[in-house]
Amino acid sequence: MKIGARNRLEGEVVEIKRGTIMCQVKLTVAGGAIMESVMTLDSLDELGIKIGDKVRVVVKAVNVMLIKE
Predict the structure, then answer these.
(1) Which among 18, 51, 59, 19 is positioned nearest to 35, based on CA atoms?
(2) pLDDT tens for residues 60-69?
(3) How far apart are CA 45 and CA 62, in angstroms?
(4) Which of 14, 27, 49, 59 could link 7 by a cystine bridge, Cβ 3.0 to 4.6 Å?
(5) How many beta carbons lie within 10 A of that of residue 57, not counting itself?
(6) Pair 7, 53: CB distance under 8 Å
C-alpha cells in the first residue's frame, strides 16, 4: 500500500483494550517508548492485529495509523 506519510516507526503490540465499537491499541517502539492508536473493532479484526504482533506505526498530523504486513 502506498501512503504519503513519512513518519514511520516499527512497533510491537503490547495491549489491546476493546470497547463496544472502538479499541485502543498500545505499542512499544524504539527505545521502549509507548504509543497508542484508536481504531474501530472492524479494522482491528480485518487487520488481524493481536498482542505480540510487529506493526508499522504511521504518524500523519494528529492521526496514528497501524499497518500490519
Answers:
(1) 59
(2) 766 677 888 8
(3) 23
(4) 59
(5) 20
(6) no
